[in-house]
Structures are given as structure tokens and as C-alpha cells.
Amino acid sequence: MEITFLFISETVDMVHLPPLISDLGLILGAAGIITIIFKKIKQPLVLGYIIAGLLVGRHISIFPSITDQENIEIWAEIGVIFLLFTLGLEFSFKKLAKVGGAASITAIVEVVVMLALGFATGKLLGWSNMDSIFLGGVLSVSSTTIIIRAFEELDVKTQQFAVLVFGVLIVEDLVAILLLVLLSTLALSQAFSGAEMLISVLKLAFFLILWFIAGIFLIPTFLKKTRKLMNDETLLIVSIALCLIMVMLATKVGFSPALGAFIMGSILAETVHGETIEHLVKSVKDLFGAIFFVSVGMLIDPNMLIDNIGPVLLITLVTVGGKLFSTSTGAFISGQSLKTSVQTGMSLSQIGEFSFIIATLGLTLKVTSEVLYPITVAVSAITTFTTPYLIRYSAKMYGFIEKTLPESWIRNLNKYSSTAQVITTTSDWKVYLHSYIYNLVIQSVCIIAIFFVSTKYMLPLVRSQVDNIFIADFIAAGFGLLLAAPFLWALSVRRIQENAFSNLWHNENVSRGPLIALNLFRIILGLFFTVLLVIQFISDPYILALVILIIAVLTSLFSNRIQKTYSQLEKRFLTNLNEKEQLQNEMHKDKIRPDIVPWDAHLVELRVSPESPFVGKSLFDLGIREKFGVNVALIERGRNTIANPGRDEKLYPGDEVMVIGTDDQLAKLKPFIELPDENRLPIERETMTLQKVTINSNSPLKGITIRSSGMREKAKALVVGIERDGERILNPDSSMQFEEEDIVWIVCNPKRLQDFLNRA
């Protein structure tokens, strides 16, 4: 018996549980219990995680506490990586291009104003420069998670302002990444240097472009080649591996791991597997994200919060008031109506996930005091609670402002928003310069990257294998030039926008001097890059001249081959880039995309419920336009699309109906068509929008009727409204003539309408 007891005692002593495992169990156990409670009381889970961290942290001794803080911080860093990876999967560079100028202008105005207000508030509180700067960064970014949750609960995702809010959040994600880079640079230098900041921005832009080009060129092809070998498990492992590889690359060139994760997520978002990967990674992100937010709560010192209750309340007021003012102002400047601007500002009046990451960055780099972090968490918690109420009462706030401001102000504000966005014919100069700059930037980035690889890696490798240094340098230079040749040709020789260039060249009113100068600059830049590479390997001027002469002869002899190689590379890149969009277009051909417009009327997609009283009835019998003031612009039935449906068209269960009207009109119509619980985000991938055309003295539409213009037949465009002498005419009769200074609202494909106006 004594021997048995001794054996058991020794065995127990040998079994030692690592602190990491017990700490992880404690973290997840606390997070699970608290989040169940928060789900019950319908509060954001992020806040629950933070409170769980507070309870198991070292500052509260009521519950068991974490013992190995260092390992938990590593897990938290992994959490940040996966949070940014999934944000990248939701981001997509194409989505950024589609959100339009309104979202970009709104986000930029908001970020600039909040950076300034945050810095000023920090200085007012007597904080250091670094604390104040980081406070500005913390306050400049809103919370995607909190806003989406609030929109779902309040059922406002189909309203006009919600579309703008989603666009602003997309732009903010990119701005936040830029802030992480700039704040890291500023923290390391401990002083503001314009030159260093410029270098950091240029470096970031260079690697963003390079990684995006390389990623789109390689990754979709790899996934396509291995598609038959990929099940969900393999795809998850490969995706996480690609994420971590990009994290290592970003760290290697001096950026944060979070940036690498975000970039890889945005690259994978452009592939046909993007949505599948996002679904597969969600559970991993939820796990590590929970650990991150719990670790955020563990850093909170309740005593410090009590001592700093004044700064917490002040910063909360600055956050809500500053974001309301800056976002509303930015939205209005971009051409949105006063109502949309106010609702957008009140929706974005909080801070969230990126704010925690920025505050964590300051602590990690040891450039901010310990007080900033808990204050950030406290402000986030307060604004999390206020956000749903601000969104709910945003329409009433607009009503109050409208009643308070003088009528002349309201009239001028409406006039500004009504004339802020107008369709104009794209000039040949604009088309040519856009393609010229695009070509210049893309080819230059590729050439510089190839030169870097040749000098940094290829040259040492060849020298280690070849004894003769001259021959080794010659081989390395040849390798670099061979790889760069297609891009040098595209930079200097390839024709850009031939039609636009030809129109400008043969236009008697356009001077040919700028065209000649632009093309000469391309050639000189190509020669500069060539010489720059060669002199890295060959210093003798005579040999250098001989090599350049040989390069010129070889380029002339193999010009067609170089051109063909570049064309193949470009075709593969564009195929990979557009593959996902082409598949979506095949599934949703000619479907209308809701867009942000300055008029109160906007487009919304509704799905006809089987229980709808409208099922089986024609549009004429339903009288939707007469009863609700709403136009039916399109019906999608399975794979069939009916644009501008006629009066005899009937509605059937499952039809996707695109309608145009104001928020109030659409709210009255929606219960008759769609089930109350069908909450879906507006689709952003389609090609048709609500646009407007101003009739001027040279307009081809001036003096003719809507019917005789042939707009409906030739451009598949529907005129839904005309603004004339300050009066808005909704659903104008087809016999109405267009007059000079009319503002005409049209549901159309912008490119098709532009082509129609150019031909008319």
C-alpha cells in the first residue's frame, strides 16, 4: 500500500500542466459565461469579452487570475492578425473603388478632423505629444462590428444613409492601416519629420501595389490549379498559411504583422474562393479575437479609471460630438442631402476594434502612458451603448435641425446637394491621363522590385557560384534585364488608349506638345531604369556604353517576343482579377446596384415573399407608383432580368424587385412585398445606378420629349424625376420636353447612358 501511494504521488508530481493551458481555459471559460449573459441582455459581445478580461485580470482578485501574462499577449497578437485578416477578406480593393467619392470624402474629412480634435484634447488634458497623437488616431476610426450589429437590430440596412455608412467604413479600414504605419514611424523617430513621413507613405504605397500585383498574379492561379485537391480543411490551412507568410514578409520590410494579414485578406477577397475562405476562417477568428479582446480587458485598472473619470467623460463627448460634426460635414460636402449627412454622422459616433489596436501599438512601442489604454476601452464601452440610440433618433435630430435653421439656409443647402453631382462626358484627356498614370505607376513598381531582387539576392548567389566577378556581374545584370524587359517595353513603348490618343492627336484644337512630352518622358524613364540597373553591376563607362548598345539591339530584334510576353502576363493578371466579378455578373446579369445619390429617392432591393398580397398581380393593377410614389425599376426572376418592366408585368414569389423611392415611401411599401425578418445588405456589385443629367445649351436632349429621345429603348434608361425652377416633378409624363437647366434623374447604366449622350 505504501509503495502504491508513493508511485501515485510521484506520478502526480510528474504531470505538470503548463500555465498557458490553465490560463487559456480560464480566459475562454470567463468569456463564454459573460458573452452568454450579454447575448441574453442583447449587448455587443466585444464589450462582454472586455469585461471578462477585467474579471480575470490582475487588478481584480475576486476571481482566479491569469498567471502567465507574456504568453497571453502572444495569443492576443495572433488574435489581432486574424481580426485584420478577416477585415481584409471583407474589404477588397475593388469594393473600395466602388464605394465612390462620397464615402472617400466623408471618411477623409472625419479622420482629419478627429486627428486634430484628439490631439487638441490630449494637450488640453496636459498629456504628452505622443499620447495626444495616439489619442487622435484612436478617435479617428469607427467600429464596424458595433454599427453592423446596431443596423441589424434597428432594421435600417436598406435605408439610404446606411449605404454611405458601409462605404465610409471600408475607406476607414484602409486609413486605419495607414495610421498604423505612420504612428509606428513617428513613435520610432520620436519626432515629426515630413521627409520620414513621406518616405513611409511612399514605401507603404510601393509595397501595397507590389503585393497586390504579385498576389493577384500568383494566388488565384495557384488556387485554380489545385481546386480539385482542395476541400474545406485544406483550403483553411492554405489560407492561414498564406496569411502568416504575408505577415512574415510585412515584418521583414518593417511593417506591422497586422498590415500583412490585412493585405493577404484583401488579395484573397478578389478570388472566387473569397467568401468560402471568409466562412472557414470565421471560427478561428472568433477564437483568437475573443482572446485579444479579453486581453484588452485584462489591462484595465479600475482604480485608474476612477481617478480619470473626468478625461473619460470629456473624450466621450469629443468623440460623439466631433464625429457627428465631422462625418456630417464630410457627407454634405460630398453632395449628400442634409438628412443623409446627419444620419451618417450619428451612426459613426463611436470607436472600436481598430482603436484598441492603435492603443495597443502605443503600449507595445512604449511611447504612450498607461492611462491611454483604459481610457480608450472606457470610451469605447460608453459609445457602444450610445450608438443604437443615436441611430434610432437620427431622423428626429434632422427634423430638429431643419426646424431650427432659417428657411433660406435649408433652401441653399438643398440646392447645393442637388447640384453637387452631375454626369458629364468623359474627355479624351481624362481617359488618356488616367491610363498613362496607371501604366507609369504599375510598370515602375514592377521594374524596381525586379531590380531589388537582382541586386539583393541574385548577385550574391551568382558570385558565390562563379569565380570571375565580371562574368558573375554580367550574368546577374542579364538576369535582371531579362525579367524587366516586358515591363520596360510596356513603360516606354506600348501604346496607351489608342482611340483617345488618336482623337487628341488629330484634334485641331488640341496642341500636340503635351502628348509628345508625355511620350518622351516615358522613354527617358525607361532608359533611366535600364542604366540604373546596369550601373549596379558594371562601373566601367566604356563597358557600360557597350552593354547599353547591346541591350538596344537585342530589344529591337526581339521586340515582338517581348510584347507577346507582356501581353500574356497582363492577360493572366486581368483574368485572375476579374474572374470573381465575371462569375457574379453571369449570375446577376444587368441587375441594378443601389448607389448613393444626393436626392432623397434611392434604390433598394426587395424580395417578394410567397405570402405577399402582391403575388400574381400586374404592376398596373397594384398601382405601386400611384399608391406609394415608388417606381419599379427592375425585376429579376431566377436567371431572367426584366429591366424597366411594363405595366402588364406580374410579380411572383422569389422575385428580386429593385424599386426607387424615399425612405418613407419604401418603408410603407416594404411590408407588402417582403417578410419583416428578411434583413439583407444592399448589393454593391452591380452596374446600374440612379444618376442625373443637367440639360445645358449644348445638350442633345434640349427641346425634345422624353419619348422622342429614345432613351428608354436605346440606353435602357428610365426617367424618374425632373427638377425645374426649384420644383421636383416625380414620374414625369413621357410627352414632357426637356428644357435648359433641367436636372433629370435617370435609372440607368452610367456607361450606357454616357454612350447614348455622346452619340445623340
Give the beta-strand count.
8
Q: Uncertain runs with pLDDT below 50, 5 residues or more?
A: 5-9, 589-598, 677-686
The largest β sheet comes out as: 4 strands, antiparallel
What distance lies between the first and last C-alpha atoms, to the nearest angstrom?
Answer: 104 Å
Q: If helices are DSSP runs of H or I spanning 4 or more residues, what is the number of helices?
A: 32
- What's the helical proportion of residues? 55-70%
Structural class by secondary-structure content: alpha+beta
How much strand? 5-15%
Describe this structure in words.
The chain starts with a helix and ends with a helix. It is α+β, with helices and mostly antiparallel strands. About 3% of the residues have low confidence. Strand 6 and strand 7 form a beta hairpin. The strands form 2 sheets. Strands 1-4-2-3 form a 4-stranded antiparallel beta sheet, covered by helices on one side. A 4-stranded antiparallel beta sheet has the order 5-8-6-7.
What are the defining features of this structure?
four-stranded antiparallel beta sheet, 760 residues
Secondary structure layout:
Elements: H1 2-14, H2 19-40, H3 45-56, H4 69-91, H5 93-98, H6 100-124, H7 129-139, H8 144-154, H9 160-189, H10 194-225, H11 232-252, H12 257-269, H13 274-298, H14 302-307, H15 309-333, H16 338-347, H17 353-364, H18 372-392, H19 394-404, H20 407-419, H21 428-465, H22 469-492, H23 498-506, H24 513-534, H25 541-557, H26 559-587, E1 602-607, H27 619-622, H28 624-628, E2 631-637, E3 640-643, E4 656-661, H29 663-673, E5 689-694, H30 706-709, H31 711-715, E6 718-724, E7 727-730, E8 743-748, H32 750-759
Antiparallel strand pairs: 1-4, 2-3, 2-4, 5-8, 6-7, 6-8
